[in-house]
Design goal:
de novo design (two linked rop proteins), elongated, 4 helices, mainly alpha
Protein backbone atom coordinates (compact mmCIF):
# COMPACT_ATOMS: atom_id res chain seq x y z
CA UNK A 1 0.00 0.00 0.00
CA UNK A 2 1.26 3.45 -0.86
CA UNK A 3 1.73 6.02 1.90
CA UNK A 4 0.86 8.84 -0.52
CA UNK A 5 -0.63 9.19 -3.98
CA UNK A 6 2.74 10.69 -4.95
CA UNK A 7 4.26 7.21 -4.64
CA UNK A 8 1.84 5.73 -7.17
CA UNK A 9 3.55 5.05 -10.53
CA UNK A 10 0.34 5.88 -12.39
CA UNK A 11 0.16 9.33 -10.74
CA UNK A 12 3.87 9.91 -11.44
CA UNK A 13 3.41 9.08 -15.13
CA UNK A 14 0.39 11.36 -15.36
CA UNK A 15 2.31 14.21 -13.75
CA UNK A 16 5.26 13.70 -16.11
CA UNK A 17 2.96 14.00 -19.11
CA UNK A 18 1.30 17.11 -17.64
CA UNK A 19 4.75 18.69 -17.32
CA UNK A 20 5.63 17.77 -20.91
CA UNK A 21 2.40 19.24 -22.24
CA UNK A 22 2.87 22.40 -20.19
CA UNK A 23 6.35 22.86 -21.69
CA UNK A 24 5.14 21.91 -25.16
CA UNK A 25 2.45 24.59 -25.09
CA UNK A 26 4.62 27.37 -23.67
CA UNK A 27 5.28 28.96 -27.05
CA UNK A 28 1.79 28.74 -28.53
CA UNK A 29 0.21 31.96 -29.80
CA UNK A 30 -1.01 34.29 -27.02
CA UNK A 31 -4.46 34.26 -28.62
CA UNK A 32 -4.72 30.65 -27.41
CA UNK A 33 -3.94 31.41 -23.74
CA UNK A 34 -7.61 31.15 -22.80
CA UNK A 35 -8.48 28.63 -25.49
CA UNK A 36 -6.49 25.65 -26.62
CA UNK A 37 -3.51 26.18 -24.29
CA UNK A 38 -5.73 26.40 -21.23
CA UNK A 39 -7.91 23.46 -22.30
CA UNK A 40 -5.11 20.98 -22.92
CA UNK A 41 -3.25 21.97 -19.77
CA UNK A 42 -6.37 21.62 -17.62
CA UNK A 43 -7.43 18.29 -19.09
CA UNK A 44 -3.92 16.88 -18.67
CA UNK A 45 -3.57 18.10 -15.11
CA UNK A 46 -7.01 16.68 -14.34
CA UNK A 47 -5.69 13.16 -14.96
CA UNK A 48 -3.25 13.25 -12.04
CA UNK A 49 -5.67 15.28 -9.90
CA UNK A 50 -8.40 12.66 -10.25
CA UNK A 51 -5.94 9.85 -9.49
CA UNK A 52 -4.93 11.72 -6.33
CA UNK A 53 -8.56 12.28 -5.39
CA UNK A 54 -9.32 8.58 -5.91
CA UNK A 55 -6.46 7.75 -3.57
CA UNK A 56 -7.98 9.92 -0.86
CA UNK A 57 -11.43 8.35 -1.03
CA UNK A 58 -12.48 5.63 1.40
CA UNK A 59 -15.32 4.02 -0.50
CA UNK A 60 -14.53 1.77 -3.41
CA UNK A 61 -17.28 3.22 -5.63
CA UNK A 62 -15.93 6.72 -5.03
CA UNK A 63 -12.45 5.54 -5.97
CA UNK A 64 -13.74 3.90 -9.15
CA UNK A 65 -15.63 7.04 -10.17
CA UNK A 66 -12.52 9.19 -9.83
CA UNK A 67 -10.48 6.70 -11.84
CA UNK A 68 -13.18 6.90 -14.52
CA UNK A 69 -12.93 10.70 -14.43
CA UNK A 70 -9.15 10.44 -14.84
CA UNK A 71 -9.73 8.21 -17.85
CA UNK A 72 -12.18 10.74 -19.30
CA UNK A 73 -9.65 13.55 -18.85
CA UNK A 74 -7.06 11.37 -20.53
CA UNK A 75 -9.18 10.85 -23.64
CA UNK A 76 -10.01 14.56 -23.66
CA UNK A 77 -6.28 15.28 -23.65
CA UNK A 78 -5.80 12.86 -26.55
CA UNK A 79 -8.44 14.78 -28.49
CA UNK A 80 -6.68 18.08 -27.76
CA UNK A 81 -3.36 16.58 -28.91
CA UNK A 82 -4.96 15.51 -32.17
CA UNK A 83 -6.43 18.98 -32.73
CA UNK A 84 -3.12 20.65 -31.89
CA UNK A 85 -1.36 18.43 -34.38
CA UNK A 86 -3.95 19.04 -37.13
CA UNK A 87 -3.85 22.83 -36.85
CA UNK A 88 -0.07 22.92 -36.64
CA UNK A 89 0.26 24.03 -33.03
CA UNK A 90 2.05 20.86 -31.96
CA UNK A 91 4.75 18.82 -33.66
CA UNK A 92 3.39 15.59 -35.09
CA UNK A 93 6.10 13.39 -33.59
CA UNK A 94 5.78 14.88 -30.09
CA UNK A 95 1.99 14.64 -30.20
CA UNK A 96 2.10 11.06 -31.38
CA UNK A 97 4.61 10.14 -28.66
CA UNK A 98 2.48 11.72 -25.91
CA UNK A 99 -0.70 10.13 -27.27
CA UNK A 100 1.01 6.73 -27.19
CA UNK A 101 2.28 7.31 -23.64
CA UNK A 102 -1.20 8.30 -22.49
CA UNK A 103 -2.68 5.12 -23.97
CA UNK A 104 0.01 2.62 -23.07
CA UNK A 105 1.28 3.99 -19.77
CA UNK A 106 -1.81 5.44 -18.15
CA UNK A 107 -5.07 4.42 -19.86
CA UNK A 108 -4.27 0.72 -19.67
CA UNK A 109 -3.14 1.05 -16.03
CA UNK A 110 -6.32 2.95 -15.14
CA UNK A 111 -8.35 0.11 -16.62
CA UNK A 112 -6.42 -2.42 -14.55
CA UNK A 113 -7.05 -0.42 -11.36
CA UNK A 114 -10.76 -0.10 -12.16
CA UNK A 115 -11.12 -3.83 -12.87
CA UNK A 116 -9.25 -4.65 -9.67
CA UNK A 117 -11.45 -2.38 -7.56
CA UNK A 118 -14.63 -3.71 -9.19
CA UNK A 119 -13.68 -7.28 -8.30
CA UNK A 120 -13.55 -6.46 -4.57
Amino acid sequence: MYKSFKEMPIWQKAMEIAEKIHNMTDDLPRKEDYGFTSQIRRSTLSISANIAEAYGRNHTLDKINFYYMARGSLTETQSHLEYGKRVGYLEKDSSKELDKALKEKIYNDLNKVIVSLKSK
